[in-house]
Write a structure and sequence with these properties.
By secondary structure, this protein is mainly beta. It folds into 5 domains: 2-218, Immunoglobulin-like; 223-340, Sandwich (Immunoglobulin-like), CATH 2.60.40.10; 342-493, Immunoglobulin-like, CATH 2.60.40.740; 497-654, Sandwich (Immunoglobulin-like); 666-697. The chain contains 6 helices and 49 strands. A 6-stranded antiparallel β-sheet has the order 18-17-20-22-23-24, with no helix packed on it. Strands 27-26-29-35-31-32 form a 6-stranded antiparallel β-sheet, with no helix packed on it. It has a 6-stranded mixed β-sheet with strand order 28-38-36-30-34-33, with no helix packed on it. The radius of gyration is 51 Å and the shape is rod-shaped. The termini are far apart. Residues 1-37 and 666-671 have low confidence and may be disordered.
Length: 697
């Protein structure tokens, strides 16, 4: 029994020195199974002569809860690991023989007195020493081999050494993955050994175990990092960006390796930001890491943002703490920002700016483009505004660009070139310090355009589209990418028309071939008609300034003039703006009197536009438009609108027949002729009598 207690002490000590109190098999053994061990009469244990033994190491990472009861091992194969223990590969052990077979026979056979051996204090520490400075271990024994637990296959975390002579061995853990917080203390293993007693298999205590299974465990620490993705439009407030994909890499020497496997809990890494714009990366062992933005997901609604693939590095320390930018914390948060510009196109409407406004052919139309400049404009290689009007022609010379009250200079801060026949293209010079200073600011571009005679009347109006093209990716080395994104916005210019209904005095019978000229008052800057005689003949107020809009407007077979009908070149005036217009009749049909004064027609049309504000993406997923016009309706404040063409104001003009004046035959003619002759003769008589009176005097 004394030997039994001594052997129990040896194994218990070895068990206690493993991290989780497990030596040659388990945690905290207290009773050895030497009772009933087969011996000869002299006490020598009986084991198979010439047989070789082995040590099989089952390495686990295990972080038991505080106060948890350790599990007892037996040295036998098939011991179940704790539920939350995970096999740990890549752990290296050195195996030393510290006592021979004869010593082992004496130990198991109770030969202490005969051999002079002291088995009362057998401890692993008796066979090695530790350098207090370096931590290096020196073993008093013969090194047999070095083994490493498997990192792949079906035996992950297992290492085995076969062909061992019988004796006592010291097992020393020499290296482990970085996530291991501390190595297992060296422990003793007897080859062979009897099974250590447990509550279920005491009937097998006399069995010799030649392949001794040990289950040392390491405590591990893992780091956790949260990626927080924020988006900023211009200098505006932040928003969470969902659907952004990242890559995670670990440094291996001079190289970086993508991490695509599962985390420490066996869960695959999900490196796409959730609806709150976050990614939580857990289960990271000690090491150097970096994350970077890889792409937007196919379902992301944030594709207008500039992809920034800059590296964000961090360190997981041995204790699981995270170091980022010199700061250490248990669970670090790394904020990653995306930026994007935005653009709005507006047209002058009265004294304010709007998305639509009415104008007529020849009018000068003021436009404004408002740009929210991204905060990282200094990292871009392209920042261009292109304007492509329809039914208008841009005045390139009128372009002005301002950052607040600071004017940008053409040729220094930007260049302007013609785009097509009617538009322009502005290229911002991104090396300009003035342009760099616009980061996060609101920049305005103002210019004028003139309405062409090809302008569309009514319908969805004349769209003036502006496109902002910009670099949409910044590489990991902070250089701009080669791809671009485009944001488009538009403002609409509407033009209207006049419809003339020419009838006889009955109000229904049409008059064909009646000709009109169309006038309006001149606007500031226009060259008016200066011939007063022309204005008098037209019946216009000569104290005012006038513009001849269109001459030769002629009624058709239905007595109609439609100034919006492009199929009739004579009557087509293209677009008219709201305002007062005057129809001057210059020719009528035979038998009818010309109108003696102009007919006033009031154009007072309101255009109501329905904009679809949903963002529009192209086939590549780039944000191209903020919205499009889906419907336009027109109403007339003056209640003189056409029932079918609501963009037209209607003027109803009536011509009346002249008086019938007879010229030959009939009593009436003779009577008027006689009276006329008598009147002439009477006048001649009066003249002669007046001339003779003075002579008589």
């Amino acid at each position: 029994m004394k030997l039994k207690r001594l052997f129990t002490a040896v194994l218990s000590t070895a068990l206690a020195l493993s991290l989780c109190a497990m030596p040659a098999m388990a945690e905290g053994a207290t009773t050895a199974g030497t009772t009933g061990t087969t011996r000869l009469a002299d006490g020598t244990p009986v084991w198979e002569s010439g047989k070789k033994g082995s040590i099989t190491i089952h390495k686990y990472e295990y972080n038991p809860a505080p106060g948890a009861t350790p599990k007892q091992g037996t040295g036998a194969e098939g011991e179940a690991a704790p539920t939350d223990a995970k096999p740990l590969g890549g752990v290296t052990f050195e195996i030393y023989k510290v006592q021979n077979e004869e010593w082992l026979k004496a130990y198991y056979g109770g030969q202490a007195a005969a051999t002079g051996q002291d088995f009362s204090n057998i401890d692993a520490s008796n066979y090695y020493s530790t350098n207090s400075t370096t931590g290096a271990i020196t073993v008093n024994g013969n090194k047999i081999d070095t083994v490493t637990t498997a990192t792949s296959g079906t035996n992950i975390g297992v290492a085995k050494k076969d062909g061992l002579d019988f004796g006592l061995y010291l097992v020393v853990e020499t290296s482990a993955p970085d996530k291991v917080t501390s190595p297992v203390a060296p422990f003793l293993v007897s080859v062979p050994m009897t099974r250590i007693a447990d509550t279920t298999t005491t009937n097998k205590l006399t069995d010799w175990i030649y392949d001794v299974h040990v289950y040392p465990k390491n405590s591990t620490a893992y780091g956790q990092v949260t990626i927080e993705k924020k988006g900023y439009t211009g200098g505006g407030s932040e928003v969470a960006l969902a659907g952004v994909k990242f890559k995670l890499q670990e440094q291996n020497g001079a190289n970086w390796t993508d991490i695509t496997a599962n985390d420490s809990n066996g869960n695959p890494y999900d490196l796409t930001t959730d609806p709150s714009g976050k990614i939580t990366i857990a289960g990271l062992s000690q090491g150097e890491y970096r994350i970077f933005e890889d792409a937007y997901s196919n379902t992301s609604a944030n594709k207008g943002y500039i992809l920034d693939a800059a590296y964000h590095t961090f360190t997981v320390q041995k204790n699981g703490q995270i170091q980022v930018d010199g700061n250490v914390s248990a669970n670090a948060t790394i904020q990653v920002a995306n930026h994007r510009p935005d653009m709005k196109k507006e047209v002058k409407k009265g004294d304010s700016w709007a998305q639509d406004a009415p104008y007529g052919v020849g009018d000068t139309v003021p436009y404004k483009i408002t740009i929210e400049v991204p905060q990282n404009i200094d990292k871009l290689s392209t920042f261009t505004v292109t304007d492509t009007p329809t039914g208008l022609k841009d005045n390139v010379g009128s372009i002005k660009i301002k950052d607040g009250t600071t004017a940008l200079t053409s040729g220094t801060d930007y260049t302007v070139a013609a785009e097509g026949t009617d538009g322009f293209k502005i290229d911002f010079i991104l090396t300009s310090n003035t342009v760099k200073a616009c980061a996060g600011h609101t920049v305005t571009i103002t210019y004028n355009a003139v309405v062409k005679d090809t302008a569309v009347v009514g319908g969805n109006g004349n769209s003036n589209n502006a496109k902002l093209t910009y670099t949409n990716k910044i590489n990991s080395d902070n250089t701009p990418g080669t791809t671009t994104n485009t944001i488009e916005d538009s403002a609409v210019m509407y033009s209207f028309g006049i419809k003339v209904k020419k009838t006889t005095e009955d109000g229904t019978t049409p008059l064909q071939g009646v000709v009109f000229d169309l006038y309006r008052e001149a606007k500031t800057g226009e060259t008016p008609i200066v011939n007063a005689e022309t204005l008098k003949k037209a019946g216009l107020d000569i104290t005012k300034k006038w513009i001849l809009v269109k001459s030769g407007l002629t009624t058709n077979a239905n007595g109609i003039i439609d100034t919006s009908d492009s199929n009739n070149a004579t009557n087509y005036t293209h677009g008219l703006a709201n305002g007062d217009y005057y129809l001057v009749e210059t020719k009528t049909v035979d038998g009818y009197n010309l109108l003696t004064k102009p007919v006033k027609v009031k154009l007072d049309v309101t255009a109501t536009t329905t904009w679809q504000k949903t963002n529009v993406y192209d086939a590549s997923g780039n944000l191209v438009k903020h919205g499009t016009v889906t419907k336009t309706t027109f109403t007339h404040t003056s209640n003189n609108g056409d029932a079918t063409k609501t963009e037209l104001a209607v003027a109803k003009v009536v011509n009346r027949k002249g008086f019938t004046l007879p010229v030959t035959g009939g009593f009436g003619t003779l009577l008027f002729s006689g009276i006329g002759v008598l009147l002439v003769l009477a006048g001649v008589g009066v003249l002669f009598s007046l001339k003779k009176k003075p002579n008589r005097a």
